[in-house]
Protein 1
Amino acid sequence: MDDSNAKKFQKELNGGLVGLVLLAVLDRSEEDLYGYEIAKRLASANDGTSIFKEGTIYPVLRALSAGDLLTSRIVPSYSGPPRRYYRITEQGRAVLAEWTAIWRSTASFVDRFLEQGHSP
Amino acid sequence: MNRSAPRSIDQYLKQLREELAGEDPALIQDATYDAEEYLRAEIAAHPDKSEADVLEIIASTYGAPDEVAGAYRDTEVKVKAAMNAPARRIPASGAGKFFGIFLDPRAYTSLFFMILSLATGILYFTFAVTGLSLSAGLAVLIVGVPFFLLFIAVTRVISLAEGRLIEAMTGVRMPRRPLHPGSTQPFWSRVAHMLKDRRTWSTLAYLVMMLPLGIVYFVVAVVGLAVSMAFIFAPLAAVADRAGWWGQPGQMHLSPAWMESLWALPLLLLAGVLLLTALMHLARGVGRVHAAYAKALLVDRSHG
């Protein structure tokens, strides 16, 4: 039961964070990236296991692109279906800056309480 | 629920389709497309492992079919909420409902789609008929087969583009990714599959049918707009004419002559407004019906 509780909590947290992380990855990347590449970057940044299920980043990429935060182009591939490469837009950068500020203030707010718990 | 873990890409995609059963076919097409891109890339990245070995770890990296299906379902709900313009509160009264159509952006875009469909209809019809007849004519030559395949491939691209256009104009969900036939089979069986695929032929039928439909849509939209605008502005022009704002009064004549009488002018104006409102309703209705029709012919429903 403990395990499923933890999973549920993680999933709820991920809801908004996947979008923030994806924008950040694409913002820092020199070239355009496609879904699989992004998934592997996330995993390699965290010792090979992403805290997101990699399957969950694709619908979010699509949603961000529908909201004009990313643009995409399709490139044929030898290994399977044509790949969709994503690049962040100016609007995406603006949203990323905004979301980053929100995340910083949220994290420091939460930390304040968590650290209080330790010290009397 | 307690299914065996998928051992191959095809099994994985099949389970994913089953998990998404009942969802919008366009969403299912996107989800399987994404999954296939990832799975094939993962297998290509591990040439030393078998397909079954790679799929064993998929549940912990990409996610099991039910988890992935859940992610698409959740995101779809959020995107719908974020992308659709907030639903206007349509006033409850009958008249408010009737005239509320002017606040509906879909009515304007649908009307625009009706006018545009003559141009796209001519384009699609010409493309489909030229492609089909050239394919038939060239079939005896060696270039016949590649030409036909190229023709079908372009047809699929057009089908995707038309879907995007319809989604933008009417708000009905259409595929955002092309349909991928799956590259596991050898070339000739893919060709055979393409030829047997109901969607190939229904797409061609759609392209051909767009010309007559486009003509009807265009005529209805243009005539409706012209007549209602004339009804709305004729009384105003007649009044301006009588007042002599355009030089000598009495230069303008409406036919039949009774329309120029004072009691007829406001009625004419009213008729124009009613006609225009009815046209907006008609446009939105056509948009919805056409989107359903396009979905039936352009989107794959044979899987799952």
Protein 2
Amino acid sequence: MLIDTLSRAMLLIVHCDKDLLEIVFLSLRVTCTSIFIATLFGLSIALLLEILQVPGKAIAVSFLNTLTGLPPVVVGLVLYMLFSRTGPLGFLDLLYSPSAMIIAQTVLATPIVAALSHASIRAGGKCVRETAMGLGATKFQALVAVFVDARYAIMAAVAAAFGRVVAEVGAVLLVGGNIAHHTRVMTTAIAMEADKGDFELAIALGIILLSLSFMVNIIFYFSQHKGEKK
Amino acid sequence: MIGFHAKNIRKSFGGRIVLDLDLHFSGTGIHIILGSNGCGKSTLLKLLAGLIQPDKGKIVPQPGQGAPVLVPKPDGLFNSSVYKNVAYGLKIHKISGMARSERIDDVLQAVSLTHLQKSNALTLSSGEKQRLCMAMALAVQPDVILLDEPTSSLDPHNAAQLEQIILQMRQGEMMVILVTHNISQAKRLADTVTFMNSDTQAAQYSSEAFFKTFDRDGLDGYI
């Protein structure tokens, strides 16, 4: 039975099943958009943490590190309450839309990008900044040099965040609602199809999800490897 | 005339004064700063380079003199090729095109790293990294070059190679200010010696006068 289901799942992939492709593309659209926004926010936070010399910075960094472990279902629940018709942001009419899913994934991904980027910048940043300034760079030019030098670590941080949100189900299910042809993504579809006992599509989506995670991990590995200082 | 007046400079970290001095450096050649750990030698170098600002007093350079360049530490090399590491300072100083390529080729040849120009700087050996650091500073062609214990982690062969490069700078009409613990090295290289007894006491001598005044045993007690 397993082999039979697996072969039918493979056929769905090979024949580029319309429903399957729709779900995969929506997943990629939601995840890529959220990762793009999270990268902008995350790098800005990392930059601020690097340049601001204020009391309580250590607490801010600890808080950020804590946020990297945010339970997706809690994020989904909070956003659900905010976006529900009676919630404070209900007037935006975002609940059960891809936009709400993008917001949920951005909330989950931003602390990961920010914390990992900041950690890498902090680790090698002081020496690199001294090199740049010692050669005549301004403070801003030195900061740019620090970010450019940490590019592989930043890429690894983005890949880690991608890996986390693409496989996430709790938050997108709560704010997206898993509506067919509208907010159904790979993870929510897998959960639903498995519940229905229709494993064919679930396994096909699982294979694609696993392949995506594998590719992201390959990028993660090589980014980290290139970023390592000997 | 090249030179600095570190005018009544004071620097403290976390409420502890690490430097409180008035010093002059003038003329081309190699000026060695000797002193024990924690007497503020590296802080003085960072102040001269403008990396940190004094709490009190100021660094007054000679009029018309270019900004000093602090030779990078191997830990601060960029994660890119040897060529790009050398190019960085030139980019900052807006030297582009043929002039940039020529300077990079010249300094890489001077430090014997031409064959490694495409290698990642972080994969070099300690000696090669230190020579690359020198090349990065030399490419900028500064009037004043500052070095903080450049041979401390090198074997005798690499240290000798680096000393040769430093000696060549003397011929280039540059002012070299070098911090070291190595008395023998100071003896080989110095034109003048600034001896820092503590964070508030420093005396300056010509190399000859210094090594006449202090014998090696006496210096070992301080450094």
Protein 3
Amino acid sequence: MSEQALGVQYATPGQEREAVTLGMWAFLATEVLFFGALIAAYFNYRMWFGGEFIAAARMTKVVLGTINTGVLLTSSACMAMAVSSYEAGSRRSPVLWLGATALLGVAFVVIKGIEYSLEYREHLVPALNFDLARHGGVAEIFFMFYFCATGFHALHLLIGIGLVTWLAIWIGTGRIDRTGSTTRLIGLYWHFVDIVWIFLFPLIYLAGRNG
Amino acid sequence: MSARTIWRCWGALMVLLALTTASAFLPLGTANLFISLGIAVTKALLVLFIFMELRASNALVRVFAAAGFFWLLIMIALTSADYTHRTDQRVPVDEVP
């Protein structure tokens, strides 16, 4: 089974490419609003609760968070290399770059898992084992935000890892049509997940470090 | 998009990451938030324009890309306007029954 060469509704591959790229950006705009609602909530919590909320952010693991940001930014560079080498007509090189992208994505999820387990041990997980007497109610609200935002981000990343792995296999086995836009569309999704993290990182990990 | 452009962009992102983490530990008060958000916007623009190729995209794609962020700004501005102008007394979270 191979990918349809050109959709019946398109006259040229160029027209198809333009249309599907626009469709992907429309989807990404809805994703901006999805994560944006969480970020808007963050700003209002921060304004409403002030110092107590910012102090709770100091309990996050800044070293692991910084390493993870580096891992994700590097994965995006690998993804860009995959798209660029794929469009230059190479077959082996994009598979290797996609493999590197997926591995860095897995590394990110593993580091995130280590953070979650440390937070579990410190009794910081709302609804599971949050120690209200020790950390206070505002910290519970911060960690509610933290787990929602990073959890949804990790979910998006897991979907991305699945897509990238599938794409690498399809390109490697020659089952994909070279004129199609699948590779660049998956690339756009991956970079978007990176952008979400670019904003979550300073809000979660860097707040309150100046005191 | 050449390999050189990609890795130069990656280098710039790494430098910005180091800057934002380092600046967070300087005692600058509220300015820390604005510095880290400013660096985040710069990093996002690098990813949008180089990795996501908005640089080489047509105007319609750019408008779609900008629309999401534009509506997001409206959402943040209006909810913030509400919360900053509330006059009712805040009940401490720990005392909510």
Protein 4
Amino acid sequence: MADLLPNLNGSPRPGGSSFSSTLSIAGYNAMLAAGLEPLGIVQGVCVMRWNWYGARSPYGGATPSPLSSKRLKHRYLEPTDGFTRNWRRTTSPVYSSKTITNWSCQHSTRRAGAHEPGVNFEQNWVEDLWSEAFAAARTRMIDEARMLGAHGVVGVVDTISDPTRGAKEFLLRGTAVRVNDAPAPLEVWSTYLAGERLVKLVEAGWAPVSVVAAMSSIRIWPACSTESQLSGWWPEVARIAQLESGHYSARFLARERVHAESGADDVHGVRFEVAENRITAGDDEVNCTVWGSRIRRFASPELARAPMATVPLR
Amino acid sequence: MSDITSLGSPAEAMAAAARFLATPATDGAPPTSNGGASDLSIDAVLLLRAIGWEAVELVTGISWQSIPKGAWILGKGENAAVTSAHQAAIETAERQLVDQCVTAGGHGVVGVRLELKTEKQHVAAEFVGTAIRPIGAARVEGRPFSSDLSARDFVVLSRSGWRPVGFCVGLSFVFVPWRRGAGRGRRFVGNFELDNYTKSLYAAREQAMERLQSTALALGAQGVVGTDISEGQVSFAHHALKFVATGTAVALVADAHVTRELVAVVSLDDLERDFEAESLRGS
Amino acid sequence: MTDIGHDGARSSVGHNEVANRRLAELEAGLFTSDLSVNEFALVKEAGFHPLGLVMGSSIYRVGLQIRRWSTSHELTTLSKAMYNARELAMERMESEAIELGADGVVGVRLDVNYYEWGRGSAEFIAVGTAVKAADGASWKNKLGKPFTSDLSGQDFWTMLQTGHVPQALVMGNCVFHIAHRGALTTLRTAGHNSELANFTQALYEARELAMTRMQEESERLGAAGIVAVRLEQKSHQWGSHTIEFLALGTAVSKREGDFELLRPTPIVSFEG
């Protein structure tokens, strides 16, 4: 770590008697009122190689085949509703209660058809890589804060961008603070909240623990019946079960990962984003990212006073 | 764990939190939090707390339905295939949302947002919301409610003696009526009402509202609040129109609406200080 | 609009069977409203109960036909058409409200939609929430019809506190063609910043017409005055030479009895 942060080496940044912060005026005011002293802006960065998953996945040159490889830990999300892998060619489809029993699979005409049709699988290697990068950026930010003698980092802003093709940068930035007249915590805490919102959270009986985030990545290789549904050849309105399952799982698994990290602690101010990525025809990916502030209750809840109802006259 | 009423000023509360975080957790002590997640702001959390409710979990539901070929070819009146695809997608996604709420131990879902993506051969409906429950309550008997009310609106409604029953959607996809042959090539003669167009669009709008109402009635509701009716063209099929009506069905908890003492206030915030000359000129 | 004549013809479009079914459900007791929760609470507070969403629409051909390009003048046929289109939409909305036995309609929203397939035509929509007084008294306006207003729930409550009651949404419009100065004239004065007299005159006249017509409607109702006036100008699909000016407001009259005016409490909020 020391080689990445040459200027810190145990001593504060040059000009260390004044502080810098990303806080707004109102935010700064709220922090002071709560006995929080800003010490300086801290940041953590991690740049990861981020290639196409497929031919150039971090696990080797070949397209990972979930059915053949035993090294990869992945979860099969089996398609339901009787998808068939029947490769026989016929002239017209024969339906039997929403299942096609004989159909020439469109994959046999596709160039990217080396894979087994009709499977969704979780791309653990992508998810782990993402977690690793986020954790590294967070750790570096926390380390900077600790070197300044801070108790926590508030107002964290995180940016994930692509500085160049094939790389992804994870940047976490926040304001390191110290709580006046209080002991140092066991671990330097961090939170996305700042200013009045953080103060209200603490007054409500929660203590900030850390910023958490996770991503889930589901690869979807459509079955022939999924493709026929998507191209409109399915004769009636019907659930596209494979896509539904893939999308549902992406959103669910990301939250599960965040909960796994947070344990029994609550997660506040959750944000989530979903991105669909078409790698090539017949090869799709759904990525869901979840962010939140992990918090822990330290005081028993009291029923707050009922608010007063007002009508504003403008 | 100290009682919050003894925390005092913000600085004292922060110092108490700091002391808590400086103390190693005793082995075997039960966790102090619920292990839940929510996307509510702290203000919304506090408002819910004021009526004795808490957020439990972020819940989602998503459904994809296929639309057969030829469904968009210009026809007459209502486009049954497309309407039923959307209805099925919404029903399935909403069921998943409420199922997730049940698993999380919630009594209802607030802040539900519906996103409908209509494509030529499929439609995807996605729901996101926050499951809530009375603080520390056991599992709900019966099915949890869903509503597009914000947490804040839920609090206002509760204090007025109402409870949400369910999020309702009514839809109608119609084709624009055929142009009458006599109209084409005729010289423009003046401004007048286009009867048959009016009739079709009027009927479609009413149909969407009527479906919304039927859904509400089926849930045993007394009314629907926050109704929003939107209409638009389908981007890839200009002759197809889409009418969507959404709202939250509600029912009285008590015998009657509860009225509260209201205070009229004048805000001295500077937000409205700028003189709006724009308002004189018109929009 | 008395000065440019009243179009006596009324379209034959009335309620259709779907609308009737929907209104029947509302009459049986279900209410719908597009009021927000805040507005709902305030409308109840004011002593009214929402009955149902009421709507009316009309699709009107509003094609442009300009004969005299070089003078600024009102396009009376178009003014009439735009006015009639809105009137029709409002009337249909009102008839739904009458069907429900409403005392009034609040939160009226007037929109115009343009569709790809309908060049030269536009859809005019009026949507509002029909309400009924809880005390059973009649709140209908001087013409014996349910009152209409585009006031929000908050403004409705506040207005009732001041001892006034809405009568009807009144509007006045004017579609004006503005003649641009000729190319030569423009070149001659290029580089000088001077008043564009044509424009000033035209815009002044057009707005005056719109406001006057709105006031006349209010006078016919015997109202005390108009509140929450909004002035809008739209080119719709006609291009920059032709503008419609629309003045909209709620005509109100005083209620009987004495009313103690509200004494508001000043506050400063800590919202960031």
